[in-house]
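During the second year of the project, the team shifted from modelling isolated chains to modelling whole assemblies. The rationale, set out in the original proposal, was that interfaces cannot be judged from single-chain predictions alone. As a representative example for this report, we include one of the complexes processed in the last quarter. Its constituent sequences, exactly as entered into the pipeline, are reproduced here:
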Amino acid sequence: GAVVSQHPSRVICKSGTSVKIECRSLDFQATTMFWYRQFPKQSLMLMATSNEGSKATYEQGVEKDKFLINHASLTLSTLTVTSAHPEDSSFYICSALGLAHEQYFGPGTRLTVT
Amino acid sequence: TQLLEQSPQFLSIQEGENLTVYCNSSSVFSSLQWYRQEPGEGPVLLVTVVTGGEVKKLKRLTFQFGDARKDSSLHITAAQPGDTGLYLCAARPNYGGATNKLIFGTGTLLAVQP
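Output from the structure prediction step:
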C-alpha cells in the first residue's frame, strides 16, 4: 500500500525559533497533500491543503505567515512553524492524496516548544 | 461549516462488552469513512461507506451508513483491549471546489479494560 513518511517524528525547539516538518510520499506521486493539527485526545483539524507548484490553501483561522507550506515536488511537502511558541506545541499529521482520491496518512510529528 | 458530531466523546468499558459509536451531521455526504488512531500515530482507515443504508462488517466491527447519508454508526461486538483507541469518522465536504478535503468528526476515545 501507499506509504507516507514524516520527519522528524519528534522535535523539541525553543520559543522563538522555527522548525520544519517534512512529509514524503514514498511510493507514489502526490500533487495534493494535507496538513492537520491534533491536540491531545482531540480530533484532527485540517490546517491547509498543499498543492504542488502553487500556493497552499489555508483553512479559516490558520495563519499562513505562521505556518509556511512548501510543496516543492510531487513527493515532498514541508510545514515550517515560524517563531514557534509553546501554544504551537501539538501533533502535526500530513496526508497525501492518491490517484483514487484516497488520503494516506503519515505517522505524525510531535512538536514541543519550550 | 459541515460538522461531524460524534457520540459519545469518551467511553470506558470492560472487555467483552458491546458498544456503538455515532457520527451525525446535518449535511449529506457522498461517502463517509471511519478511522482508528492509536497514541502517537497517524489514523488508519477502517472502512469507507458509500451507499445510503449500507452495512459493512470488519470482523467484530459493523459499520452502517444512514439511509439519508447524513449519519453513520460503528458497532463493536465483544470489545477487546486491542480495540482501545481514538475512533474518527470523516467525510468530504460538499461545498464547491473542495471535494478532496477530508473533515474529521469530533472523535470518540475508547478504552477497553481487561
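The two ends of chain A are 37 Å apart (CA to CA). Chain A has a mean pLDDT of 94.
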